[in-house]
Amino acid sequence: MLLDILIFSYHIEDYNLQQGLQECRPPLLIKGIHAERASLLSTRELHIVHKYSEAVNNVCENVARNCQSLLSDYDRAFIVSFVMQPARQLGIDPAYLLEQLLAFRIHMCRVENRKKTLLHAKSTSLWTRGLILLHSKWTLGKSQRLLACRLVSDDIAVTQLGERICERLRLVLGQAIKDFSEKHCKFGMGNVKREVYADSVPTALVHELNSWEASYRKKNRIIRERTQRMIAPPDSELPRRNSPIVERAKSTRNLYSIYEHDEVPQRPRSFDR
Fold it and tell me: ∠ CA 141-142-143 to the nearest 5 degrees?
């Protein structure tokens, strides 16, 4: 999903891309044509990603209003299981992936919506993109710095994905990011810190869900420990090692001596007199 979004955002459609997809193991195949554009996602997968983006958007609406108490456990578990955990496995910042899903809900990887990707966002938040901003040097400088941060974030994501894709595809994506930066980013990628940038709303959501997940795991651990104590008897009720019931031979010599005893003990000689 993320790979398809990056290919769409940077408008990569050359021969090197096709070669890179083929060299991956297993090869990445074009699964569908959506809105006159080849996609790595099938129609069903595209529909699933859209559902994910809708779920993330609904949750972020409450987070943007500081109404985290309205987040249901189902929504929390859904985003943790299907968005955050896969992101962690890929080494991708969960907040970055959440923001990409928010943007995907707007552009849907459609050609006519190419300028609605994160690369063309003029404000620091998706929630204010509908507002009319004053065109000033301050606004221009801020948007240019934002673009540099997003380009660096994409480059970090490509680097992380490079462990799961072939070198050629990684170089194709990296070159596309560099070309876009030289053409559209006057601020320059080298003038910002190399770290993942994400909007404040997805970042706050990740912080909230991390706390909830830790609390949820702790609660489950306590329940498991209580269940185990109910099933297994306490240590005080278990026979101790030095108890005669479980006393074992302390050496192989003693062990053999058990079988050397006669089955019927000998009669004392005093009884024969």
Answer: 95
